[in-house]
Amino acid sequence: MTKPPFEKILIANRGEIAVRIIRACHEMGIRTVAVYSEADRKALHVRYAMEACLIGPPPSRDSYLRIDRILEAAKKTGAQAIHPGYGFLAENDDFARAVRDAGIVWIGPPPEAMEAMGDKIRAREIMQKAKVPVVPGTPPLSPDPFEVARQAEAIGYPVLLKASAGGGGKGMRVVTSSKELPSLLAQARGEAASSFGDDTVFLEKYVERPRHIEVQVLGDTHGNVIHLGERECSIQRRHQKLIEEAPSPCVDAATRARIGEIAVKAAKAVGYVSAGTVEMLRGADGSFYFMEMNTRLQVEHPVTELVYGIDLVKAMIHVAAGEPLKMKQKDVVPRGHAIECRIIAEDPARNFMPAPGKVRALRAPTGPGIRYDGGAYAGYDIPVHYDPLLAKLCAWGADRDEAIARIGRALDEYRVDGLKTSVSFHRNVMRHAAFQAGDLHTGFVAEHPELLGSGDDVWLDEIAVIAAAIAHFRHAEAISAKGGTASAAAGGSSWRWGGRRGWRA
């Protein structure tokens, strides 16, 4: 076995992504350090890591967002490198600089690239200079409402208000007319200020019925940048992704090569290193526009790994150690199709309202072509303080039809008892004719409210078992009252017949 690039890595995150990174490290022979808040003492990532450090109380601002405490944990445990995962400090260039200044290796892109791409207005300017197509838009909006109205009229309604420091749909509003502009502008600025500490917003042309297509890139410190094809992420609610797949049903080989070149050009424009994602909008006319770049590992990275057979976490670690990429662009060939469903502790029937609580029972599906990246277990309390993502359920198939069939089967096998989840929603989507036909756009969920259903997961086999147990108990009581035994009852097994009645119920 080759010598690992690092002896010990600290994972500055929690949940399923921390578990995912820990597993990759252990396969590489690297020792791991978890950090955790008081709410996460019993979390899975704490159990899986070789060492663990408490970094503060439950609120993330007092624990997972505390740069000083994470660095202290790294120094205390002798970690040589830090992997940030996604979320929290993953795209914080101040954190990346602090890690680098502390003499610890940052497993991610250079902070300068993160800073450039983190400011959406600056990123647009860099992309325009690099001849990357961007959505028509404006510089930062002035405080003058008449000037803002003039700019919106010049672009043409509908327009999209976006926060310069935004993400996850925060500080974003669609404006369909001049009447809506003043109030929605105030809302966007207010949300941007509260979410990012920066109320700078700008305008873009709103692309109607777009598809969200993103391209995975990977770069090293030797000047090599490649792309690993695209992912389709159009199934969203409130601009947050729910289902992702690779490749996109609307992208052929020639288009893949074209948008891949655009993504590589965008990454090279900022000296990008490590794994990153160039997000694009595809208009109804087939045009692609640069939207933004996520300077980190994406939640949906497993579908790319399944199709291209490349472990992105391991690749990030090798790149951080100064090694060149192990593959050239010509070696990157897609195989089959993969779909990911985000299993979230939310109630789809109540507009995806968060539903944290105790996981009373959990059975993860297995079988051919199934990958399950989870962060919870039976008996675990989902904390109210963090993102309610329970797991990512992925399926790979030789083609899209097989991938849909496999993930549908896996969703039927999946059991989470004790709290509402998005499982029923995913089942509805997989059975929907428009999804199966690949007729997607970012308004798909809003256009099909029937997908939300009741939000209840009704498990007929469990009902059958309960009904059988009740029937058996009553039958045994009746026999006992007559002085006999249950086994002497005529007519065969009460469990069997009770079960059948339960199944019919």
Number of strands: 20
Mean pLDDT, to the nearest integer, reads 91
Strand content: 15-25%
The unreliable regions are 486-505
Gross morphology: globular
Biggest sheet, open or closed, and with what strands and sense?
Answer: 8 strands, antiparallel
- Taking all Cα atoms into account, the compactness measure Rg is 25 Å
In brief:
The protein is of the alpha+beta class.
Describe it for me?
The protein has 505 residues and is an alpha+beta fold. 36% of the residues lie in helices and 22% in strands. It is built from 17 helices and 20 strands. An 8-stranded antiparallel sheet has the order 13-12-9-10-11-14-19-18, with helices on both faces. Strands 3-2-1-4-5 form a 5-stranded parallel sheet. A 3-stranded antiparallel sheet has the order 7-6-8, with helices on one face. Strand 1, helix 1 and strand 2 form a beta-alpha-beta unit. The longest helix is centred in the C-terminal third of the chain and has 22 residues, at 460-481. Mean pLDDT is 91; it is low at 486-505.
Architecture blueprint of SSEs:
Blueprint lengths: L7 E4 L3 H13 L3 E7 L6 H5 L2 E6 L10 H11 L3 E3 L9 H9 L3 E2 L4 H8 L1 H10 L15 H11 L3 E5 L9 E3 L5 H16 L4 E5 L5 E9 L5 E13 L2 E7 L6 H17 L4 E9 L5 E7 L6 H8 L3 H9 L16 E8 L1 E2 L5 E2 L6 E3 L6 E5 L14 E9 L2 H14 L1 E3 L5 H9 L1 H4 L7 H4 L12 H22 L12 H11 L1
Parallel strand pairs: 1-2, 1-4, 2-3, 4-5
Antiparallel strand pairs: 6-7, 6-8, 9-10, 9-12, 10-11, 11-14, 12-13, 14-19, 15-16, 17-20, 18-19
Helix pairs in contact: 4-5, 12-13, 16-17
Throw out a few tags for this protein:
alpha+beta, disordered C terminus, 5-stranded parallel beta sheet, 36% helix
